[in-house]
C-alpha cells in the first residue's frame, strides 16, 4: 500500500497552505481510495456555492483518474439545515447514479464566515 498527499495543480488550489486536498491510498492491485478534504466555494447563494463545490470536487477527482461516479461516501456541512432541499437539488445534478453513503450535518460556522456549505468525499478508484 502506498499513500500520497497532494493538491493537484489542475484543480482549484486550497484556501490555506496547511492541508492537502487529496489523500490517495494505492493498493497493490492498482485500485485506490481517495479521501478529498472538505471543499467550500465562492458565491452569493447556497446554490452557487454548492455548484462551485461540486465543480472543484470533480476537478480534484479527475486529477486522480476518478469521477463523481466513483464517490462511495459524502459528508456535507450546512450552516442552515433547513436549506437541505436547495443543496440537494444541486447535488442531484452532479451525483446522477446510485447515491453514495451520506451524512449531512448542521454547523454553526465553517472555515470561512461566508461559507454556507462544505463537502468532503471518499472515492474508490478501480484498478485500470
Helix content: 10-25%
Number of separate strands: 6
Q: What is the residue-averaged pLDDT?
A: 95
| Proportion of residues in β-strands | 25-35%
Record the strand order, biggest sheet: 1-2-3-6-4-5
Q: Which structural class best describes the helix and strand composition? A: alpha+beta
In whole angstroms, the N-to-C terminal distance is 16 Å
Rg (C-alpha, Å) = 14 Å
Largest sheet: 6 strands, mixed
Overall form: globular
- Provide a count of the helices: 2
Query: Helices and strands, in N-to-C order?
Result: EEEHEHEE
What low-confidence regions span 5 or more consecutive residues with pLDDT below 50? none
Brief synopsis:
The protein has 128 residues and is of the alpha+beta class. The protein has helices at 46-62, 84-94; strands at residues 2-6, 22-26, 32-39, 71-78, 101-106, 117-125. The chain contains two helices and six strands; from the N terminus they run E-E-E-H-E-H-E-E.
